[in-house]
Design brief:
about 500 residues, mainly alpha, about 45% helix, SusD-like_N
């Protein structure tokens, strides 16, 4: 049979497992794509395995978006850390493990989706009698394939488009496609998903699967991202005016009445309130399962010394990734989100006082698992507040709506945070409101790129924040990450490196 590869990463179907805490987690042992798909449950396991590639998504957003942005001044305070080159705009990060994982992790998910789609086409009708289930599985696979490609295009710009399984020899002749071609596949897949996924799932076992509203929300963000400036870098922005298309989708989500605005900000992230009314799509985790399907993102931005200071085992965050003074000072005094999201220093078990602040948003010290790789809290990818604020953004870009509509949305969010109402919200002010609302959720870098203000904001931020004088001057080429060196080495000349590296 043909080998199914993820360009440089081989995908062995027998090693796939489900990521959802409630989805079927039965391992597919000693199987190949030739003999595995023999009953309906095999196809369900295969789509669950495609969700499995989401496991590293939260860590990726914190490492590549949050750390890259003006939210963190993550220079090293001892030893060489992988995040330092990300934070400081080093030109030599093509071999950085975070960058390599962003490529390989997404392509692993894409190939799992492609295998499933191929087998659904070849065997689905003869094995799965339920046509509704067949269509749903196809829609889930296409949603996930689009999701992974959207992540890739935001990090790397032009990437190879693979919409079917290929041989190793074929893969070595597939170069990078234009960003517009990558988007064509993403939009087609998401449109199919939005038309064919259910509004919701009726059984607890299906919690965490993508719905049509998840597809519409991601598609709206795709249109908005495409509408951002190009910066002349072959990046995610194409300068298109698709704010109206995005607004239509956002309004459909709002009008569905499937989701609502929670009155309490901490309750959105509570370990005992998962899958709440704010959640449109999340990455599901569990603790105590075999294979392990827990998360590592809760401790990623918190130092080990803090866990030790409160009587917990070290987790893996190592040294501190301090929150920037710029972000700390941007919070208004009454903003309740600051105390929930940020730990303002601590005294170590050795009596050393740490005055720098760091993110603790996802940490519940009463829920620390025995295994540091096995945190049970879900990671929210898309929530209702985001839908509302994205709607306000579209209106500010000329989509139907009024300044009063924008103010009303922003003031709803501010009121929950304990803040007074404001008027005449501008795009710059909206982005600052988003910055506090979604701090440590991995959206800041993407928001800066989409806003068109990343060059001016990052340049002035580096000048003010880089007291150690270790950061490189910002240039627009750094909006994208380099193509991983491991990919360049597979076949020299197949891919050209992104400019600036």
């Amino acid at each position: 049979m043909k080998k199914i590869i993820g360009f440089s990463s081989i995908v062995i179907l027998g090693m796939l497992s489900a990521c959802d805490k409630k989805l079927d987690q039965t391992p597919i042992s000693d199987q190949t794509t030739a003999n595995f798909y023999t009953q309906p449950g095999d196809f369900i396991q295969a789509v669950n395995a495609t969700y499995n590639s989401l496991l590293t998504y939260p860590d990726r957003q914190l490492n590549l978006s949050e750390t890259r942005s003006d939210n963190l001044y993550a220079v090293s305070d001892g030893g060489v850390r992988d995040w330092e080159g990300i934070n400081s705009f080093h030109r030599t990060i093509a071999g950085n493990p975070y960058v390599t994982e962003a490529w390989s992790g997404n392509y692993t998910g894409i190939n799992r989706a492609n295998v499933l789609l191929q087998k659904l086409s070849e065997k689905g009708e003869s094995i799965i009698a339920d046509g509704t289930l067949r269509t749903r599985l196809e829609a889930e696979a296409k949603f996930l394939r689009a999701f992974y490609y959207f992540d890739l295009v935001r990090w790397f710009g032009r990437v190879p488009v693979l919409d079917q399984t290929v041989t190793a020899t074929e893969a070595l002749n597939i170069g990078r496609s234009a960003v517009s071609d990558v988007y064509s596949l993403i939009i087609s897949d998401l449109q199919f998903a939005a038309a064919n996924l259910p509004d919701a799932y009726s059984t607890a076992a299906d919690k965490g699967r993508a719905t049509k509203y998840a597809a519409k929300g991601i598609l709206a963000l795709v249109y908005m991202t495409r509408s951002g400036p190009t910066y002349d870098i072959n990046g995610p922005g194409l300068g298109l005016n698709e704010w109206g298309q995005a607004l239509t989708l956002l309004n459909e989500i709002i009008a569905s009445n499937k989701y609502s605005f929670l009155a309490s900000y901490p309750n959105i992230f509570s370990y005992t309130n998962e899958n709440n009314a704010e959640v449109i799509f999340d990455v599901q985790y569990s603790t105590g399962s075999n294979p392990i399907v827990g998360g590592t993102f809760p401790w990623l931005l918190a130092p080990d010394a803090w866990f030790q200071a409160v009587g917990k085992a070290v987790q893996g965050g190592l040294t501190i990734r301090p929150i920037s003074n710029n972000l700390l000072n941007s919070y208004e005094a009454a903003d309740t989100r600051k105390a929930f999201s940020i730990q303002p220093g601590f005294t170590s078990s050795n009596g050393v006082t740490e005055t720098r602040s760091f993110f603790k948003k996802y940490v519940d010290l009463t829920k620390v698992p025995t295994n540091r790789l096995d945190w049970p809290i879900n990671f929210i990818v898309l929530r209702y507040t985001d839908i509302l604020l994205l709607k306000a953004e579209c209106i500010l870009h000329g989509a139907p709506g009024t300044p009063a509509d924008v103010d009303a949305i922003v003031n709803q969010v501010r009121a929950r945070a304990g803040l007074a109402a404001i008027t005449n919200v501008t795009l710059a002010r909206l982005m600052e409101e988003r910055r506090k609302e979604f701090a440590a959720e991995g959206s800041r870098w993407h928001d800066l790129v989409r806003s068109g203000n990343i060059e001016s904001i990052m340049t002035s931020w580096i000048a003010a924040e880089d007291v150690q004088k270790v950061m490189q001057p910002f240039q627009k080429n750094y909006i994208l990450y380099p193509i991983p060196q491991s990919e360049l080495d597979v076949k020299p000349g197949l891919y050209e490196q992104n400019l600036g590296y």
